[in-house]
Structures are given as C-alpha cells and as structure tokens.
Amino acid sequence: MPKEEHYDYVVIGIGSIGSMALWQLSKLAASGKKILGIEQYGQVHPHGGYAGESRLFRVAVKEGGELVPLAQRAREMWLELNAISGRDVFLPIGALSIGPKGTVPIEATLSSIKEWNLEHDYFEPEELRERFPQFEVEDNMVGILDLNGGGIRPEVAVAVASDAAVELGAELRTHTRVDSINVETDENGAERVRIATQDGDVLAAHVIITTGSWAKELLPEFESKISITPITLTWMMPRNIAQFSPEKLPVFLYDTDLSSGSHFHVYGAPSLDGYTVKISHGHERKPVGSVAELNKVVSEETLDEFSINASGVVPDFYESCPRYSVHHDGFTENGKPIIDRLKDKPITVAVGMSGTGMKFAPIYGQIVAELAISGDSSVRPKAFGVEREVLNQNV
Ligand SMILES: Cc1cc2nc3c(=O)[nH]c(=O)nc-3n(C[C@H](O)[C@H](O)[C@H](O)COP(=O)(O)OP(=O)(O)OC[C@H]3O[C@@H](n4cnc5c(N)ncnc54)[C@H](O)[C@@H]3O)c2cc1C
C-alpha cells in the first residue's frame, strides 16, 4: 500500500480563488504548517472559469454595499501581487461605464459612488465624445470613469499567486484530479479528510474546496445550489488599433437600446494582443449539466448579429468578429458566492462565483484562509454563508 501523506491544509482546485487561497494560507497559517494545492490540469490552463485573457475590475460595483470595501481591499492586494511578481497582473487603467442617463446601470454605479465617496470622473455627452472618441455616444448618454477600476490578466494572476504560495513554502501538485473526499476520524479521535486522487490518498486536517464549475462533483449536496453557466467572450478588430491600447482605453461597460427595441449590454477591455479589442455580451446563457457538456461553438448567425451591434457601439470596428471563446462559471441562485466552513466538518468551500469572482479573488482567498485557520473571518459578508435563506434576512 502506498504511504499516505499528511497535510495541515489542502486546497483543491487552483484557479482564480484557489490560487489566491493558497497564497493567503501560505502567508497567514502558523509557520511549519504543511500546505498543499491540488489542480487537475496544469498550473495555468484554458479550461477554467478564469480563462480568456482579461477580466474587468471595478470598485464602484453596481451592487454597492459590503462589496465596495471588499473591492477596495482586493485592489490593494492586486497591486501587491503586481509588486511581488514584477508583472502587470492588474492594470490600473480605470473602468468606464457608458449608458443612458437615469437607467439602472448608470444610477446604480452613481449610487455606489455616492454611498462610498469613490474617486470618479463624470462626463456629459459632449465631454464623453471628446475624451473617448472610440464610442458612439447618443445625446442621452453619460459616462462615469471609476478611477480605481482596471483590468486583470487572469491567467497571469493564477500563475503568479500560486508561484507566490510556493515561494512561501506551499506545495503545488498539478495534473492531479481529486476523485472524492471523505471525512474520517484518526486514531486520536480527531477529524480529518481523506482526499482520493489517481496517485493515491492524501490526508488533510482541513480541506478548502475551490473547484469552480466542477463544485458539484466533490460536493454533491451543492447540486441544487450551483448552476454551470456558459459565458462567451468575443473580440472585434478596429481599423485604428492605436486608439484601443490600455493607455487610451479603460475597461468599459456600455448599455444602449437597439432600434429593434431590445437592450444591448456589452463589456470589454483594451487591446492586449495588439490587433483585437475584447467586447462581449451575454449571448445565450442556458446552464449545462457539467463542464464536459459545454458547447464551445457559437453560430455564424449569432456572431454576425453581434458584430453589427458591436460596430454600432464602436464605429471603428470591422463588421465581423475575428475571435471568440466559450467559458463557464458556477452561478448561485441569488448571484452571491458561497464562502463558508461546512457545519461540523473540517472543510471550507468557496464556490458559485456567479460571473464576478475574479475582481474579488485575492480578498476571497484571504477570507477562505481565515475561515480555514480560525473558523471565522471579520471581512466575510454574512450573505456568503451556505445557509443563505436564513442569513439573507440579516444582510
Ligand atoms: C467569460 C467570463 C468573463 C468573466 N468576466 C469577469 C469580469 O470581468 N470580472 C470579474 O470579476 N469576474 C468575471 N468573471 C468571473 C470569474 O472569472 C470567475 O468567477 C472566476 O474565475 C471563478 O473562479 P473559481 O476559482 O471559482 O473557478 P476556476 O477559476 O475555474 O478554478 C477552479 C479550478 O479547480 C480545478 N478543479 C476542478 N475540479 C477539480 C478536481 N476534482 N481536482 C482538482 N482540480 C479541480 C479546475 O481545473 C480549475 O483550475 C468572468 C467569468 C467568465 C467565464
């Protein structure tokens, strides 16, 4: 029988949240604790909810409330990651919201800014056209630049956060799929978790599950709590690429009503590849049963229709889409992640990031580490608990 390995903390799933949890655990756990990260694919891979080149970061999140101080702390941590890695993981270029005055996305952003007194610039239509000539701006549209927003390079983030953890003494085991976890009692009566992998079992005093869209596979009791939702990213090609560099263009969100009467929401980032600009909208988001069932093909018809509408937003775009990819994330019913310690079990979970996990990843990593180490986290919103029906009433 192969020798069983013992660890104090094992993080399963080293994607957006897992890489940050591993980094934070390595910083916060008492010295001498043995920490392991297990990832089914490589240290960086194209299959996770984090893939796709860029993510948007905003401090002035539309939801406001407790999420704003979390975003502010996350920003400091992103800058720390930039500093320790020497890489542009976080691009502090601002986040621009454009939309008709008086509509929900604009008013919600303004109310979050007002509530927390956030640094921003506000543009009436004329000023907006002058400052950001890339966009079609109608006379009823205004712009808000969240000065502390920016872009995130997600693949780089996962790589450097897990590097930072290893640097601090954690071990990282890639290409190792966890098949099951079981809580058992050791010879001294203490609880521990047996983690079964194809390379043998690992024993942990505490396990952290950050398996994203795969959450239900290790947590069958979460079957009804998480739905796996496809998200398509699209990129368009401008004629004048110089106007779309990170020096000229922040990350952006743009809302408009089309002549057909339907609402068109897009979000995007400046050119990071030197020839395209990310500009995406929801497309169809019908949940799938498992990541393996994800259809990665978008029809020509959908792409053509999108290209026409996107060229209406940015007139410099060629009217066809040269690049797209289909990704996924685990969504909870109310859009709030589940970050909690499971009752009476040495297991902490951080799943159901619901399409917004990347911007908060470092602070969620810190919360996970605190929960695993002490059972409590002073910064975790109560609404993130597993028992949401009960807890939501107290938010
Ligand atoms: C297209 C798209 C655009 C988005 N845009 C934004 C944005 O602009 N801003 C923002 O803040 N958020 C955004 N999000 C959301 C954000 O990217 C996700 O919420 C976040 O990446 C999810 O992180 P995660 O750690 O839960 O999952 P993942 O990053 O997918 O990590 C899970 C990891 O667990 C591993 N794993 C799973 N099962 C096992 C197993 N059994 N054994 C070992 N390893 C396992 C997986 O391989 C994976 O590496 C977007 C998401 C998508 C898909």
Automatic annotation (TrEMBL):
SUPFAM superfamilies per the UniProt record, alphabetical: FAD/NAD(P)-binding domain
Listed cofactors: FAD
Domain FAD dependent oxidoreductase intervals: 8-371
GO molecular function: flavin adenine dinucleotide binding; sarcosine oxidase activity
Entry superkingdom: Bacteria
Pfam families: DAO
UniProt xrefs under InterPro entries: FAD-dep_OxRdtase, FAD/NAD-bd_sf, MTOX
Alphabetically ordered keywords of this record: FAD, Flavoprotein, Oxidoreductase
Protein name, UniProt field: Putative sarcosine oxidase
Species of the source: Corynebacterium callunae DSM 20147
